[in-house]
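Morning. Coffee machine broken again, so started the prediction first thing and wrote up yesterday's gels while waiting. Chain of 157 residues, entered below exactly as on the submission form.
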Amino acid sequence: MTKRSIFMTALASALSLLSFGCGGTNHLQSITLTSTGTTLTGIGGTVQLTAKGISSNGSTSDISGKVKYTVTPTGTDYLLNPLPAPPQTVNFNATGQITAVAPADCSFTYVAGTKPPVYFLSGSYQVVATMDGVTSLPIFIGVASSSGGGPNQACNT
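Came back before lunch.
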């Protein structure tokens, strides 16, 4: 074996080892969570979540059915009571669809004495997606599921 072939073999081996040591394996780096809306309107109203995985090589893929969704109530309903945790008010499935269910607490609060009626979001459901130890930034979904004149005619006054 010549010095040149020994050198080339050593160089090829070193480059091979470097590629494995510097991200040679592709892994999930981040998750981006998006939704088709920000409010569940009416009993049975739905919002579909989409989780996109971004790999260490820069590629993206839909991982909506592979992540674990965690839904946490934040804030209050329109009567200023703490929002109940799922499965009360909202249900969610493994593919990321969130559905308003009875009894459904409205999370918009009426501002008394305003004409036309004015509502503000007093509570929402925080949703994150997790996979392989990587967690998305949260998104927030409001609930407007009681009958009567709120946003989209969906909260009591």
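The first helix runs from residue 3 to 21. Going to sketch it on the whiteboard this afternoon.
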